[in-house]
Design a protein that fits this description.
The chain is mainly alpha-helical and 762 residues long. The chain is built from 23 helices and six strands.
Length: 762
């Protein structure tokens, strides 16, 4: 006998009615429902439509055993079933996490022994708080570290068994914040809408590793482990690592990167990272790509970018040649930097995220410079400043053009909050500082003239974090006459001094660049009133130190050095180091070297310029000795400090050469010891910063070229062969031959070029 539920009509047209009215079926052949439907269809059929003469009614075949009766599941029952299933999965995930954490705790100590920070003392954590001005005690994984600011929970097993450092409260990565003030069933309804209309068994809760598979386009040397379970966000930005890994790298970026808490407002940015990826306040993916690229430098679990081989010329400007030579896939950091650059270029073409593009460019400039990719860093720095100009970041009301133009002063809308306005100002000054600092190492024109900048200096760090409004009358402008020698007590900190010191570099660079042109036209600022040459034959007696512009710069640099407030005199207090103040303390000495070095003659005891650059170089060495006496990781100082060290070493090599030529046994040992110490500090910074390795090798090459084999052989110098020729292409049509005939590298020349004679006036 066929049961009522089995004998229901299975016609597709009446399936839903039969399910709902299964107990009312008369079990006849054909059933009354199909008869009525057929009669209605015949009565209302359009002309020309042929219908079957009799209703078609099909039934299930009878089976020996009766299956369960089908019942309709109400929404509440479905939600309860979903909730039970989710609770079951959460229990399994918690058991898996406990097992992984137990294994990771046994393995974390051996892995952390290879971390670059493992040799530092416990006094390093307050250094980070002081230098960045952002307290990371509230960031999971950084507050409970090993005393060095390095999280010990979750790093060792991030790849392949990474667990998020942010507690998820049992949600396993799912963001319920978009369902506020709702009951559990309502939240489950939202989850169901996120997962789609597929049944629970098809929801994508799968074995997904937080690491990156080496076979994918995100190859970074990571192996995927199928034992980790994460919820995959369908709307997560493409090419970014998983949510947990991205957050971990962003936290590392804010914890260790020098410019992070000035380029962004740390608490606000980290809070926006918790939003759903589709939220308009969620960070732009290009910014996250750039942060991941830089943040990967500070974590031990991500393989670093391979350093250039020993045979690669240290002074090579074009980084693409190195990658052609190495023939390797891009590292994780290089991939993320590429994604950031591609998205920024597309956004600029479309006119989207204009200000964010400036922020991305600043981060990419630092990344390229850090890896010694000078051509890309130079172009990126120039682009950052040029994009900042139409965004109106180089000027501040009321200092706009007086001419009537078709375009507004800025192509981005005005800032809505104090915080947003100050972030824009900080971004401009960081772009300016990076472009000026790199510009000191070449003879090329700058991208933006100082006279085209009418902007307020940044806010003090604590005021910036709190979003305090400070009126322009209480602050300093970039074009104030006494900007470099006067500091307002309520508006001065290490970052403001850092910006002011960069302005000094800009003025010295402009003087060196424009000196010959101004002298040619007879500009009084560069003409010495005592012994200016009347003809080309008298140029050897010309002494630039009597030129008014030179004297003004020299006095300004010395006045800036002595004008630091009492609480900012020393960048090192105990074991604590302020990176911005340390760089601001180095820059005046570098400015004196850049100003006097082209005119210095180290072999002459009466040369004033030689005495000035020697004193400046040894002042930089003294600051190096001070930081070497601490446990501070020198790779966190920033890139310009490393450049100052290199320039100091280069000056000392000049004096070593002069001492060796004069057989001065009293000076040679001291100069040797200072050069060896500078080289050791560069090698220490090169453990993470590729730029330091390039500077160290450039110093070795210059030492060898200046002193010859006698002194160079006494040092543990790994020098590339000056006779090598490196083929960059398979057909050997393009070769790269080191030019050892030069006295220097890609930086400035030592010897001042001859001054052109002024035109005779008739």
């Amino acid at each position: 006998m066929v049961s009522i539920s089995q004998s229901l009509c299975r016609s597709p047209r009446k399936l839903l009615y039969n399910i709902y009215l299964d107990v009312h079926s008369d079990a006849q052949r054909p059933c009354s429902t199909c008869v009525r439907s057929h009669s209605y269809a015949v009565a209302h059929a359009p002309a020309g439509v042929e219908l079957p003469p009799h209703p078609e009614c099909t039934f299930d075949e009878a089976v020996s055993e009766s299956p369960p009766v089908e019942t309709t599941e109400t929404p509440k029952s479905r939600f309860e079933r979903l909730e039970s299933r989710i609770n079951e999965l959460e229990s399994l995930l918690r058991e898996k996490d406990r097992a992984l954490n137990t294994f990771a705790s046994d393995q974390s100590q051996p892995q952390m022994q290879h971390h670059p920070f493992a040799s530092s003392s416990n006094a390093h954590t307050p250094n980070l708080v002081h230098s960045n001005g952002f307290n990371f005690d509230g960031i999971p994984g950084f507050a409970n570290g090993n005393g060095n600011g390095i999280p010990t929970n979750g790093i060792s097993n991030m790849y392949p068994n990474y667990t998020s450092s942010k507690p998820q409260n049992g949600t396993n990565g799912m963001d319920y914040t978009q369902f506020p003030n709702a009951s559990g069933l309502d939240n489950l309804a939202g989850v169901a809408s996120l997962l789609g209309n597929a049944p629970l068994s098809e929801a994508h809760i799968d074995s997904v590793s937080a690491g990156l598979n080496q076979d994918t386009s995100m190859s970074g040397g990571f192996q995927s482990n199928g034992s980790n379970l994460d919820i995959v966000f369908a709307s997560w930005p493409v090419n970014l690592p998983s949510r947990e890994v991205t957050r971990h790298l962003v936290e590392a970026y804010f914890a260790f990167h020098l410019h992070a808490v000035r380029l962004f407002h740390g608490p606000s940015f980290l809070a926006s990272l918790d939003l759903h990826p589709t939220d308009p306040r969620f960070p732009w993916s290009a910014i996250l790509h750039a942060m991941c690229a830089i943040g990967s430098l500070y974590v031990a679990s991500i393989p670093p970018t391979p350093a250039p081989p020993p045979e690669y010329p240290a002074h090579e400007v074009f980084g693409a040649r190195l990658r052609t030579l190495q023939r390797r896939p891009d590292s994780f950091a290089e991939q993320q930097a590429k994604f950031a650059k591609e998205q920024a270029e597309i956004a600029l073409d479309l006119g989207h995220h204009k200000f964010q593009c400036v922020q991305v460019t600043v981060m990419l400039t630092w990344f390229y410079w850090c890896h010694g990719r000078w051509s890309e860093a130079f172009l990126s720095a120039a682009q950052g400043l040029r994009v900042a100009v139409p965004c109106g970041l180089n000027v501040c009301p009321p200092f706009h053009t007086i001419a009537e133009t078709l375009r507004p002063p800025a192509i981005i809308p005005p800032a809505k909050t104090v915080m947003e306005d100050e972030v824009r100002r900080n971004t401009f000054w960081l772009a300016y500082a990076m472009e000026r600092q790199m510009g000191t190492g070449n003879g090329w024109a700058l991208s933006l003239d100082d006279q085209d900048i009418c902007q307020l200096l940044p806010l003090r760090g604590d005021q910036f974090e709190q979003g305090i409004l400070v009126y322009p009358s209480e602050r300093q402008w970039s074009h104030d006459r006494d900007l470099l020698t006067t500091h307002k007590d309520e508006q001065i900190d290490s970052f403001i001094l850092y910006v002011k010191a960069t302005i000094i570099l800009s003025r010295v660079k402009s003087f060196n660049l424009r000196f010959k042109g101004k002298h040619y036209v007879g500009d009084a600022s560069v003409v010495s009133p005592n012994n200016s040459p009347a003809s080309a034959d008298q140029q050897e007696i010309f002494d630039i130190k009597d030129a008014p512009a030179f004297q003004e710069l020299d006095k300004m640099i010395n006045a800036f050095r002595t004008s630091f407030p009492a609480h900012l005199k020393s960048p090192i207090i105990g074991q604590s180091v302020d990176p911005y103040l340390y760089t601001a303390s180095l820059i005046p000495h570098l400015g004196l070297i850049l100003l006097n070095e082209p005119h210095a003659r180290p072999g002459e005891a009466t040369c004033v310029h030689a005495d000035r650059i020697l004193r400046a170089a040894r002042a930089i060495v003294d600051l190096m000795y001070n930081i070497a006496s601490t446990s501070y990781d020198v790779s966190l100082l920033g890139l310009h400090s490393i450049m100052c060290w290199f320039m100091s070493g280069r000056v000392l090599i000049r004096f070593l050469k002069a001492a060796m030529q004069a057989n001065s046994d009293a000076q040679i040992p001291q100069l040797q010891a200072e050069i060896v110490f500078i080289r050791s500090m560069l090698m220490k910074a090169a453990e993470r910063i590729t730029l330091a390795q390039r500077y160290q090798r450039m110093l070795d090459e210059y030492l060898f070229n200046s002193t010859g084999q006698t002194f160079a052989d006494s040092l543990p110098i790994s020098r590339f062969s000056t006779e090598c020729t490196i083929s960059l292409e398979e057909d050997s049509t393009s070769t790269m031959v080191p030019d050892t005939s030069r006295a220097t590298d890609v930086f400035m020349q030592y010897r001042a070029p001859p001054i052109p004679a002024r035109p005779t006036r008739r």
